[in-house]
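question for whoever is on the cluster today: can someone run the full assembly for these? two chains, 992 residues total. i dont have access anymore since they changed the login thing
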Amino acid sequence: MAELNTSLARPTARQRCLDRAIVLWVMATALFAILPHLTRMPILLAIALASICLLRISRWYRNPHWLLRTATVLCAVGIIFWLHNGLWGRLPGSQLLCCMLILKSFELNRSRDAMLMVSLSFFVVATWFLFSQSPLTFVYLMAATWLGLTSMIVINRDGCRPTEIRSLLIQGARLVIPAIPLALAMFFLFPRLSVPLWGIQGGELEGVTGLSGSMSPGDISNLFIDDGPAFRVTFTGSKPPRDELYWRGPVLSRFDGKRWSQSVYSSVAARNKPSREAADISYEVELEPHRRHWLFALDYPAIYPSDSRLSIDYQLRNVRPISNVKRYSISSDLDFRDNRPINGTLLNESLYLPSGIGQRARELASNWQAEYGAAETIVAQALRYFRDNPFFYRLDSLPLLADPIDEFLFDSRAGYCEHYAGAFTFLMRAAGIPARVVTGYQGGIDNGEYLLVRQSDAHAWAEIWLDDEQGWSRVDPTAWVAPDRVQQGSRAVVDVPNWLHAPWLVDVRNQADKLRHWWNKNIVSFNANRQSRLLQPLGIERVDQRQLLLLLIVLSVVISLVIFWWYRFAGRSRHADPVVNAYRHLIRRLQQAGIDPPHHAGPQTVMRKVISYCPDSRVQTERLFGRYIRYRYAHGSEHSLDAETRQLKAKQLADQLRAFRIPRRK
Amino acid sequence: MRSLSLSNWITRQPRFQRWLAARGPLTPPFRIAYRQVYILPTRFGVTFAILLVAMLLGSLNYNNNAALLLAFLLATAAQLSTFRTWRNLSGLDIGKLHVQPVFAGETALFRLNIYERQGFERPILELGSDAAAQATEQHRLTLSAGQSGILELAVPTSRRGWLECPRLRLSSIYPLGLFRAWSWLHPQQRCLVYPQLLQQPPPLPTPASGDGKHNLLPEPDADFAGLRDYRPGDHIKDIAWKATARMGKLISREDPPTAYSELLFRLSQTGVRDIEQGLRIVATWVVKAEQNGLRYGLALPGLNIPPDNGAAHRHQCLRGLALWQS
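^ ran it for u. tokens below:
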């Protein structure tokens, strides 16, 4: 025997190299994590990252030279820097993280590297939620967690054979699914911050659709094709008629010949506000994040959130940019008139016309001024001009290059709301009437309990100053050209493929939005404020965070205990033979009863132990164990029986084993 | 697997040992009770926790609820994985520990039998120890339900005598590798370490005169004297293997060599003053003599083993040498 020892080669610490299956799982996890980010990357970068993943899986490279590795990392940093003019911020930061994650695959040699890559993948998944928190991302979250945890299992198992994939995925699910209730408890009860610990940056506008603070032809029409929700409104009382649903957004007073932009006074607070008592239309708005400051409201808001300001031209601006779904309550007074006299710079700004453009329009307007005099008549004449001449409401009109005003008014005569609002405002100013452009949304779709306003409902109209009594008044020239736009919504005037109008599809879209609404209301906009009112349904007005924490601890312990109890038995593999299962069950019962058969004992020994424990039970014990031993170990006699009889006998024996009463010691 | 020095210090404290012993038997065979499974985060688990805290702080600050949900989901999944890790060990039956004698300088292989009888799969069990131990192919093992298996721990040896089995640690980090559950085993088992074998020992001594026997030693297989063709019925020990290899046919010894090759090894025959070195030489002679099919014995102070041969005799001689005056 000693020869055996001498001949046994001394075990060497073999250079461990990762199993191929591990590489596959880890790279799949990483790829899944960067997948949504890829959609926002420049196409070449996305292709490069995806192909590095695929090449690593197919073992085209392993451990490149460190010089190459460093060069690639520097190259990635350079590309990101060049794309975004910096590395700081949401988009460059997340893209850099994606690159680093994928480049980590250059050194994927030990299980430690693999584990690190999986954890980084989780982090990359988390950064995606800075961009989107729709219900679909929740599905993505669950899938990514499942995949990641299963990868960790595979790593700790030193790989996996193709036949094991199913069982490993089940094991991964056994980790994720029980974690959900506990995670939800933590989600709702874990103390939230009511004030952020560090600053929140705003002003990153990439890839978010919505109204901007300025308007040039094409801005709003781009929104028409966007079916995404802008906000949802739930009216608490009466609902105004549809043609009153002008959701006021950015107000644009300055015009440079091409672009309308905000007044220099837009940060000055409103001087005369509608009284709270007169505000008769109350509603709650759930605003999708648009990364800018505006809140949308009906004219004119009287009661609005405390963290927002009402400017002199009645723009409602939040203090911080809207980076998450925001819910706010507003009351508006539809009959209020902003008739405080304007003068000085404000007046000049509302009358200013850039030089060099719109000569024909100026002539037309000064003719009207000379002919009619009164402001109301001029307005009526202008609207009549739009109606009587062949103007068309079209999205695909030609771009107006040299002189957007004259070309539109006298040549092309085809455009959409921003053309009409812009040209109308220009005409009014030329006729000596102070005027400005207001952008926002118009209308909305009634979706049961709430009104859904989509991005495609974006609209632009004009406001003119008539006299000291009436003040600023809204005029919507588009309504004169395409009344359907205001009466039925943007869909009525936009040419979309017919199948998009199919009732079932519209229904599906509306149902999907209802889900999204519910999701936003209960999950995405949950915050410290909502948390303190969590127990209101139970009659507790406010809970402080200490109580919540206590509740969380109690709940966690209870849920953990339940899951622990389940874990003790989950995954217990059952023998294919019911008789063996029944026998094992009997052994466990014997152990519980204190007859502890040695763990290596066969049925003979167990039988003797039972009999010595309680000699009275000798006859029945011997009979039962005898049958079991014959069943398990004497194969000859059983083979003569046909399958059905054998099955029947097995079932009888299993029943007997389960029914066996463990004798009590006298 | 080598743990931190602080934990080493703690585990050596008598109070800790008593506390450990109070939680159940540590000497195999026994069944690991639920109180005997300990669990702590691994180093990677700490890294993962730091990552989760970063994710948590970021998402709390921006009130990003989806990221928060992800952080909580991962944290709870990690926490629940402790149950699974714990269950990998709890209820496992620890069988006997086996070890074969080795020569000093070789590694002693402690082989532990473990039995799964609870109907669970026990993935990736690992056997380790605080003492310097080498990794072998078999220090990790997956047991499927109802299976039994053997785990090995290789401990390098340097001195002859008894090698106490170090305290063993049966551990598992499955499934996520964030926590390590372990159980202590304290087997009262020791490995016999024979004196080291020498690569180039002095030649076997010629039999001492005055033993009263005619035991002139022919150098075995040096020439073909005393050899003849194999005849059916010759004992396998009588076959001269070296000559067989050279001739290409079976060659037997004319007479069994036992009659005239009885050797009695003495320390004085080794010609070295260092006792340990002398013991090594004698041990090497024993192995050689056994290989050559000679009859040999030992005559050391306090240790007299009459000449004989065979595996048991060899072991008796080597054991005597291993434990001589120690």
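summary bc i know u wont read the tokens: Confidence is low (pLDDT under 50) at residues 1-15, 201-207 of chain A. Chain A has 24 helices and 18 strands.
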